[in-house]
Amino acid sequence: MGTLYQSPPASSIVRDLKVTIQDTSVVFPAKKTEKRFMFLSNIDQVLNFYVQTVDFFPANPEFPPDVVAEKLKTALSKVLVSYDFMAGRLKLNQESGRLEIECNGQGVVYCVASSDYSLDDIGDLVYPNPAFGQLVVQKLDNVEAGDQPLCTVQLTSFKCGGFAVGISNNHCTFDGLSFKIFLQNLASQAFDDNKPLAITPANDRTLLAARNPPRVTFPHPELLKLKIPIGEEDQNLPVFDCPEEELDLKIFKLSSDDVNSLREKAKPDPVSTGDNNIKITSFNVVTSHIWRCKALSFGGDDPDRLSTVLYAVDIRSRLNPPLPGSYTGNAVLTAYATATCKELEDGPLSKVVALVAEGANRMTDEYARSAIDWGEVYKGFPHGEFLISSWWRLGFSDVVYPWGKPRYSCPVVHHRKDIILLFPDIDEEKNAVNVLVALPMKEMEKFQTLFHKLLKEVDHWH
Length: 462
Description:
By secondary structure, the protein is an alpha+beta fold. The chain has ten helices and 18 strands.
């Protein structure tokens, strides 16, 4: 149960993909777009950093990489008409002190590249190889911060005819769900049938504007006040960090059976608890299991120590009225759950799952509006012992392009202490999940022991 993912031996990891940039161009919207300034919500404001994603595609004889490169470039130009802000630039409004996007049609950078390797040569796609960063345009040299494109796309062909599409975009443009919709729309425009977008994006970020005057109606222990004015913070300042060389990195795989087993264990005994209404989702049980391991590996020696786990909740359907499903901005807020180490160690899994579920249930319309208003008053970012960032169910690998679905889709990982990443497995096992953990060596030893031990235990409530 709960296998430790066998990372490839260090000697087999390709550390240099030998990527050569063949061509770099700027892609503009296919039609002229209106010049305007786009309002960014308080959630968007604090996400001024770049996220990199890579999709790996196997060779398709009907779509060699040079054909794909042209089709993708054309599709990008078409899609930028509806996503005009992607072709804009991020600016700080000196009067309001807020970041906004100047929709000025300056375009997206598009690179065509090649690698000296085949896809099979680069080995295990699941392992977060730092070399995958070579498949993405990280940042343009000799370009001022205010002129950096909000999105870059790189198509890298491999010797086998397979290729990778690496996208780097500023997080203020999309959350995970809206990025998936962007990819679906990009894919739809790559077909030769001149059809409209698969899903019409809803670009009005004022739907998440703070109330006037702002009303903070809840305490928000999950948020930390920011002393530095928005836009002036060091972009390399993460919420959680530790020198990378001090971190041990491991991937723990939970199979569908493991996840189902956790769900079974999480069922409360209604006779003992009187509670049979806990939302036992796969995410809630996996988050609960990780929380126990992380809290007890970090400070389990002190039973009274409080541990707080943070995790994102999509608020689109939780607002009144709900946001459009195709809302393009960041519509996720940080939920939290807090317990003592003793409660996490001794209590049944059902109690821990109930705390995680309660954290999500807390995210009502009023709570979400209060959190957004808190951002208006204090600025700031999430604050807790650690954060679970889930790419598990985003479904990037389900997007259908003319040349097929990706073999695998993954983030380019920057190892951060106290950010634990959930991402899907490469095989067809639908409910399986990989858990990427980066911790100091001694903490990792404890985490690994607990991960397997707690998975095997049958709660004493059964």
